[in-house]
Design a protein that fits this description.
Two copies of one chain form a homodimer. Chain A is an alpha/beta fold and about 280 residues long. Chain A has nine helices and 15 strands. Helices cover about 30% and strands about 35% of the residues of chain A. In chain A, strand 13 and strand 14 form a beta hairpin.
Chain lengths: ~280, ~280
């Protein structure tokens, strides 16, 4: 499959978190080993850096199989004029990481992103002495322990992060549930020419009328287009009205999808194709 | 309208947060002034206290018109055997609250729940000197400033919280967006006898097949039953499969709803009526 970056010699991909974050693994899966990491502190910064041309692509987590959708990123997708050009799935494995030489008995505090701490509750519960310290990023917590030289602390992060910062893994795969995957999207500035792919993501609003959502979904069902995900988010200033984000198992350039989207536009006061893309 | 607590002389309602929280306002709207507050630190504790009989009812926020659904509470609804017996809507007004006598020029730090801080960004941005301190609860931040006697700090919380802790409001309605409402649900232990009301909430899973959601929604559309909300949440251990939470504008005991739910059961491997209830 053709990568979204084509044959460019260098690709700059922005993501939230420090080097070694799961998003960087996702960026490598989509763009290959020549991707240049552009780490950013927050998701807003990731979108802004692509909008302003400081990075070629953004790589954002959109959904975790245990925690659910990352709603902030759905909201940012609607607000920014970026296009989805690829997706990938990363198996999330959490590891207990320490300074080289630190023994487990010496560990008193465990740093990580709150979601990672929550996903290792069964492991952490077995060791009551461990204080949980919420941190802004998994890889960032490894970097922090390294830079501060903390000998009584551990981080929960990927094996990649441990290698990158020259740290030691004390316990591997400490997550509660092995069925832990995150889906990531790759975004770039809208080029104007329509890319295609096996999946299409759209967002739309509907009139507040009985049966509106059923009628909207009928445009796909009547044409045997599979719907793989639906997500609803509030619309600011219109309490209890929603934006619907829908993923379709088809190319936006296919005959039936062109008809379905034209049909949907008839009933949707707001409508946008977020992109048509492949899975890497 | 008959309150869910009937004519009981005393009603104990558990909610997350300190006395003075928006959930307590919601509890008063549903159960009237004789409600006894049972404040709990976390939503898990709120559900547990009703399950174990330490409180008669739980009052939980389920959706905010700006921030969206409170997904943790959707997950807890599926996990616990409680029944929805009422809903209410609370207008969220945020106020800047200080110790009596504190002047605005002396305020250096602002404490509140992260969502409340995020909803007052425009106000806070005008005063760069203010440090934002995330706290576990809006009313709890007022209580903290009172108890610690902080003269250089303010809290963002409801006017009720200011009155309750004998504090002073420096600025009223500092939220960015006036269209800020939260919908709350009242829950109790399942009684066995079917209560009714103008709305019905259900949760179901579907087989992973093309058109499954469309077919599920057709059971309501074909009977002119209005769907007011749909929310999807991941199923643990089944990546990319979902539980769907749907609110219907009808009584679960109505003829058409009985038929629709029987029809839905044919295609749903998992199905549960969360409750049928009125708006207070």
């Amino acid at each position: 499959m053709r990568r979204p970056c084509g044959a460019r010699p260098e690709v700059r991909a922005a993501f939230q978190g420090e080097a070694g974050a799961f998003s960087q693994t996702a960026a490598r899966q989509i763009f290959g080993p020549r991707v240049v990491a552009v780490p950013k502190p927050a998701f807003d910064d990731v979108f802004a850096s692509v909008t302003r041309g400081h990075a070629d692509f953004a790589v954002i987590p959109i959904e975790n199989s245990l925690a659910g959708s990352i709603h902030q990123n759905y909201d940012l997708l609607a607000r920014h004029r970026l296009e989805v050009v690829g997706e990938t799935y990363v198996r999330i494995e959490h590891n207990l990481i320490v300074m080289p030489g630190t023994k487990f008995a010496a560990v008193r505090r465990v740093y990580s992103h709150p979601v990672a701490l929550a996903q290792c509750v069964n492991f952490l519960r077995r060791f009551r002495r461990l204080e949980h310290v919420p941190f802004y990023d998994t890889a960032g917590s490894v970097k922090h322990i390294r830079e501060a030289g903390l000998k009584d602390a551990a981080a929960i992060a990927s094996a990649d992060a441990a290698v990158l910062y020259g740290m030691q893994i004390l316990h591997r795969r400490i997550e509660d549930d092995a069925e832990n995957y995150t889906r990531f999207l790759a975004l770039c500035r809208r080029s104007g020419h329509k890319a295609g792919g096996s999946k299409t993501s759209i967002v739309f609003a509907l009139k507040n009328a009985p049966g509106a959502l059923f009628k909207a979904l009928s445009v796909f069902a009547l044409r045997d287009i599979n719907l793989t995900k639906i997500e609803s988010r509030p619309i600011r200033g219109k309490p209890w009205e929603y934006l619907f984000y829908v993923d379709l198992g088809t190319d936006s350039r296919s005959r039936e999808c062109v008809h379905a989207l034209r049909h949907l536009r008839e009933m949707a006061p707001y409508f946008k194709v977020l992109g048509s893309y492949d899975t890497f």
